[in-house]
Amino acid sequence: MAFIKSDVELKSSVFQMIGKQWLLISAGTEKSFNSMTASWGAFGVLWNKYTATVYVRPERYTYGFLETNDRFSLCLFGEKHREALVVMGTKSGRDMDKPAACGLSPVFIDGVPAYAEAETVFICKKIYSDNLRAENMGEDGLSVYAAGSGIHKMYIGEILGLYRNDARQ
Asked: Could you state, in order of their start, the residue ranges of all structural domains in the chain?
């Protein structure tokens, strides 16, 4: 397995990557980390930097890792890992070793957790975070929150590197 650093240039639709292919958000250290599946996010430019934005609810186990670490990864996988991404998004790392249960192999790129099976990995450095606020949402935003569920926190990360899995080419 070898990841090759690439230019931060995407040849596929970000709407496909996030909404259909899903992202696996990972944060932590080699001693302790967690990952979760996400289907909300964005790529763009902020403060003259290429950025990725993700949203995580405070009750998610990954939230604490994002809060206490400056860097995180976003991994993209092919369709054959769809079931693994379902488990990574519906089970908690508090209760089980999710990567082992899913047959995923953790690797560390620039000290950030990622997965050997990923096709593409973005390594990001947090440059901004803030809680979404109900008073700033319209009906469409409020409609996705069930009573008692936490409202997402937004994390914007500068993309430090985009890596393509050489073994997957």
From this structure: 3-168
